[in-house]
Predict the 3D structure of the following.
Amino acid sequence: MQNALTGVSRGSKLASQLLAFGRRQPLEPKVVNIGRFIRGLDDLLRRALGEEIEIETTVSGGLWNTFADPGQIENALLNLAINARDAMNGRGRMTIEVGNAFLDDDYALEHADVTPGQYVMLAVTDTGTGIAPEIIDKVFEPFFTTKPEGRGTGLGLSMVYGFARQSGGHVKIYSELGLGTTIKLYLPRSHASEDLVVESTQKPVVGGTETILVVEDDEGVRATAVEMLTDLGYRVLKAADAASALAVIESGVPVDLLFTDVVMPGALRSPALARRARERLPGIAVLFTSGYTENAIVHGGRLDEGVNLLPKPYTREALSRKIRYVLGSQQQGNAAGPAQARTGASLEKTARQLSILLVEDEAIIRLSSVDMLQDLGHDVQGAANIEDALALLRKAPFDVLITDIQLSGSSGLELADEASALHPGIGIIFASGRDSLPREREGGILLRKPYDAAALASCLERLGKCGASQTS
Ligand SMILES: Nc1ncnc2c1ncn2[C@@H]1O[C@H](COP(=O)(O)OP(=O)(O)OP(=O)(O)O)[C@@H](O)[C@H]1O
Ligand SMILES: [Mg+2]
């Protein structure tokens, strides 16, 4: 059992670090004072570093606030601290420094990813081995590690880098062989006042006695969630899809929290379920859960305001914490006045449903793109190569063809010509890792890889085939 649990938690950590590197982690940014925030992490760092490492923390006075996901700040700091520990062989001094920083035009000229401006800097310095100049450019690469098998996966710094970039920040390494390393993480300044509900993940598990409706199509996952919640003291109802969940809610039983999977089979989609549940029970709290990071409720890597998401797989701790948090905020809101129903209205798709053919030879990209397009409300078919694509095109018309330019052994450009010949009005989008389309296709629509749901949606809008202006 222990081995299985360790395996699952390692897999889940791996997935989330890769997502962080790909800047696809759903972030929940808050206004945070990092100085105050990291004081709450003393214990955690102490435990991670062991007895023999001295930890010194300096926070400069008048520290600005920053706008970033506190859970990820904690993760980044922990990764940097563990790297420092490993570099010092468990002995030495680690310094954490937090201060205001201004990155000026000159600095921005030297660093392509920097927008000049005000940042909050979090620096971690160690007195360890240092990083050799030959590998310093590689350390952010996913899976780059110099540690023996089983000790490092090479994802720590990739996560830090992806998180910084996704948050509009920047990372810089200074290192000297034999002397030590400083890694500086810059996060953008926020002028807003600090959000109060900044909690560290290191809190004990608490349950409750509210009623929770669990909606999940996978029987095993549903049974586990029900059992964990029952165990935590909650009264639990369950449903296998959105339609039966709605039936439960409409039957009039009081439900305090709707805990629903995002991606489920059936015509009723989970955002619509949430909206209808709120119409019926205005005080109900809603928590979504999903194993996918781009879906009906995550847009462009960011959760919609007021929407709560628990990523899968989750532990009992994560579940209990998130449930309490969501119930707590809802109860505060309910006490404050008539429920300002934060309905799923913004989640409803206004665009017209399109029939789309997506051609991509990389299975993972194909599957996730099909998923994103479906979540945008479209009818999608995927094809892995030109032959399959042509067979589909001959069978039925499509509104839009999205094709990779470089398909193994053949070209998406030729496919586009054939598609246009078969269906003259078809809209065409080319996906490519390059910055521009080949000259003969100038003026065509380029979907730059890697892309997210927002990029897909905006390309479809540019085609003029969907969006408010066009009524079908
Ligand atoms: N503070 C440091 N001092 C010296 N070398 C470092 C330091 N931080 C990172 N490195 C080097 O960069 C490599 C990549 O670091 P990264 O955190 O991405 O992966 P890892 O520590 O090897 O594995 P993981 O963090 O996934 O357990 C390390 O293997 C190490 O060689
Ligand atoms: Mg590491």
In short: Residues 316-336 form the longest helix (21 residues). The first strand starts at residue 30 and ends at 32.
